[in-house]
Design brief:
469 residues; alpha/beta; 2 domains; two-stranded antiparallel ribbon; 16 helices; globular
Length: 469
């Protein structure tokens, strides 16, 4: 699916420096039959601006036009099945997130590694290469020998860098140096979360109609607003925000995903983004699906636990951990969303349409049950059989507290009043997990994993293993 033969030049990175790519997975990829390689991409990136007589309005039907070019050189890290028979034909092209001041990506979730996808994580934005002002954690600072030749002038270049990366791993790629190692690629799914989801929102609305190199989009924890096409030298900096930075205004949905889509778009949101997206909620269609999960938040303890050892390896220090953070992982929902998008593209089977989170009042607020947990939405077992009030309610009003949400454990007395003993709790939890599986929002592999996690978190079990009551 392409309207151009323009492709970036693909080269191998130098062997100098630390000897491994930044952010490389800690998962034993060999045990999954996967290999990991990094490549450099370079070319001339087209910049875009709103076409004359148009604006980036609420309806999402944005028209863009080229406004010049700029040279770039960046990198892509690829995980791919070594056995071509294991490859399912889909490359997940990931827009790496740079809100922390460096590249964030995983690409090693169970759905990707067990499902036979290839993964390509692209350093698409300036901060990934050059870091934030005063915070040298970009690729240049991390390994000057390996990455010193990389350069992205402006985030204005990011949209076409992503397009060119799609061509470099897509069905019609130049195979002189092949990032996919000869695999027979049938389709490319674009995926990004948080700030990256906002940029993909703009890509869907303004750039995809011109580029047409992506077969489906998966926007994760998306705040309901596309980013500008033109930002010049500005970069998003939530690590050291200016005094004028209005957190709540920044996290407020402003536009729809265009409703004349020619490829599927799926959005998977937590409770926090459900609040942001409420003003721009739109119905599901034969090309659009929108999920939002009660009791979840933008960041979870589980996600932080996965990120911490990689951070410690790459930066030589411990990842700062928040004192309180939501305890329901969104990762199983991301995997379920990817699984459904793959089926949508390969078999035409559309994803389920779960209920939305309930809001009431003026201004509207989330309706909560007797435990303080949101009503409606996707019902993961942790909210159906709770032992804590998990929510997007922050403990403070700074940006990180808002992203972390909160988890307030029930007292041991309350837990025992609700369930009696661990066996009863686990039985009810697994029943709720099976219901979520039947609803299509959990994959079978996650049911037992979540049930084991729940068993270990029951107060008696946690206390016996040294956990706090």
């Amino acid at each position: 699916m392409t309207n151009s033969t323009m492709q970036p030049k693909v080269t191998e990175p130098p062997a100098a420096g630390r000897g491994y790519p930044f952010g490389l997975s800690l998962v034993d990829l060999d045990a999954h039959g996967y290999g990991a390689r990094e490549y450099f991409l370079e070319g001339e990136a087209t910049r875009y601006r709103p076409a004359p007589g148009t604006e980036l309005g609420r309806d999402g039907r944005w028209r863009a036009e080229p406004s010049g070019t700029a040279p770039y050189r960046t990198r892509v890290i690829v995980y791919r099945p070594l056995d071509p028979d294991r490859f399912n034909g889909t490359v997940v092209l990931h827009w790496n997130n740079v809100s922390a001041g460096y590249d964030l990506f995983s690409g090693d979730t169970p759905e990707i590694l067990e499902g036979g996808y290839a993964f390509a994580g692209v350093t698409t934005q300036r901060v990934g290469v050059h870091g934030l002002p005063g915070a040298p954690q970009g690729l240049h600072a991390w390994d000057p020998e390996r990455y010193r030749t990389l350069s992205i002038t402006s985030d204005d270049d990011s949209f076409d860098i992503f397009t060119q990366a799609a061509r470099a791993v897509g069905p019609d790629r130049d195979r002189t140096i092949d990032p996919l190692g000869g695999l027979d690629v049938a389709r490319v799914i674009a995926m990004g979360s948080s700030q990256s989801a906002g940029r993909l929102g703009t890509y869907v609305n303004a750039v995809h109609p011109l580029a047409r190199v992506i077969d489906g989009f998966l926007l994760l924890i998306y705040f309901g607003s596309g980013t500008p096409l033109e930002v010049g030298d500005d970069v998003v900096n939530i690590v050291n925000p200016t005094e004028a930075f209005d957190v709540r205004a920044a996290l407020q949905g402003k536009n729809l995903i265009r409703d004349d889509l020619d490829v599927p778009v799926m959005v998977v949101n937590s409770e926090l983004e459900a609040v942001a997206c409420l003003p721009v909620r739109q119905p599901d269609t034969d090309r659009f699906r929108y999920w939002e999960a009660a009791g979840t938040c933008h960041v979870s303890q589980q996600a932080m636990d996965l990120r911490a050892p990689k951070y410690e390896r790459d930066f030589g220090t411990s990842l700062p951990m928040p004192p309180t953070v939501n305890h329901i992982s969104m990762i199983p929902l991301y995997d379920a969303g990817l699984h459904h998008l793959q089926q949508w593209l390969t078999t035409g089977t559309t994803p389920p349409t779960p209920p939305r989170i309930e809001f009431a009042g003026d201004p509207p607020e989330i309706v909560r049950d007797e435990h303080g947990i949101a009503r409606g939405g996707i019902r993961l077992p942790q909210v159906e059989v709770p032992i804590a009030q998990n929510s997007a309610i922050p403990v403070a009003e700074d940006i990180f507290s808002i992203l972390y949400g909160s988890s307030v454990p029930f007292s041991v007395t309350k837990v025992h009043e609700l369930y009696g003993d661990v066996a009863t709790f686990v039985g009810r939890f697994e029943e709720a997990a099976r219901a979520a599986e039947k609803a299509g929002v959990l994959l079978p592999r996650d049911v037992l994993a979540l049930t084991d996690e729940a068993r270990a978190s029951f107060p008696d079990v946690a206390a016996a293993s040294g956990g706090a009551e």
